[in-house]
UniProtKB/TrEMBL annotation:
Domain Polymerase nucleotidyl transferase: 12-45
Organism field: Pyrodictium delaneyi
GO MF annotation list: nucleotidyltransferase activity
Protein name in UniProt: DNA polymerase subunit beta
Domain of life where this protein originates: Archaea
Pfam families in alphabetical order: NTP_transf_2
Length: 208
C-alpha cells in the first residue's frame, strides 16, 4: 500500500487482513475507492519492484459499476482494483462490510470487524477474534461494521444464493496483458457492448 500512497492515492485493504483472521491462503485485496488513471497505480507498483501478471476489466452484472483489476500473480491472490465510474453507496460499503483499513490503520496494527464470505461476523479481540452468525442479526451487524442495513441484506442475499446455487459468471470479464492500457480496453469494450457503455455513462465515467 505504501507505494500507492506515495503516488498520492488513498488505498484501502479489505477482507481478512483488515479483520485480523488472516491465514497463509488469504488474498491481499487492495482497493482505490476513486476513479484514477491506471498509470499511477502501475508506476507505484513498478517503483516497489512488483511485477504485474495481468489485468482485468470486470462488470459483475449489467447494473454494476465496472472495475479494473491489476493482478500481481497468476493465482489472482494479490490484486489492486479501482472503479471505472462512480460507485453506488452499496458498492462502496461492500468493502467495509467485509472489513477495510487504510494505510495508517495497517501500519498501526489496527484491526476492524467485518463479515467473511461464509456470513460469519469477525470481531477482533486483544488475543484473537470472536466469530458469530450474521443471519437474523442483520441490523446489529450493520451497526458493528458501520454500513447500512440495506448493504447487509444485499450481501446476505448474494452470498446465500451463492451457497445454494454456486458461483455464477460475471457479465463482463476482459483479460489484458500486463502492457495493455486499461483505458484503451475500456473504450474498446464500450464500443462493442452497449450495456457496458450505458453503465459507464450513467455512472459518470470519464472514459466515455
Amino acid at each position: 500500500m505504501e507505494p500507492l500512497k506515495l503516488m498520492g492515492l488513498a488505498p484501502i485493504v479489505h477482507g481478512s487482513i483488515a479483520r485480523g483472521d488472516v491465514h497463509s491462503g488469504s488474498d491481499i485485496d487492495v482497493f482505490i475507492p476513486s476513479i484514477v488513471p491506471s498509470y499511477m497505480i502501475e508506476v507505484g507498483l513498478e517503483r516497489a519492484g512488483l511485477r504485474i501478471s495481468h489485468k482485468l476489466v470486470v462488470q459483475a452484472t449489467p447494473q454494476s459499476t465496472p472495475k479494473a483489476y491489476i493482478v500481481l500473480d497468476a493465482e489472482e491472490k494479490r490484486i489492486v482494483s479501482f472503479p471505472l465510474a462512480k460507485l453506488s453507496k452499496k458498492e462502496y460499503e461492500f468493502y467495509y462490510f467485509g472489513g477495510a483499513l487504510d494505510y495508517d490503520g495497517i501500519v498501526s496494527g489496527k484491526r476492524v470487524p467485518g463479515v467473511n464470505k461464509k456470513l460469519v461476523l469477525i470481531e477482533p479481540l486483544p488475543d484473537g477474534h470472536r466469530e458469530s452468525p450474521v443471519i437474523g442479526r442483520e441490523a446489529e451487524v450493520a451497526k458493528i461494521v458501520g454500513v447500512s442495513i440495506d448493504t447487509v441484506l444485499e450481501r446476505v442475499r448474494v452470498l446465500t444464493r451463492r451457497d445454494e446455487h454456486g458461483r455464477t459468471g460475471v457479465f463482463v470479464k476482459y483479460e489484458l496483458e500486463p502492457w495493455d492500457s486499461i483505458e484503451d480496453a475500456v473504450r474498446r469494450i464500450a464500443r462493442e457492448n452497449p450495456i457496458f457503455r450505458r453503465a459507464l455513462i450513467a455512472k459518470g465515467s470519464p472514459l466515455v
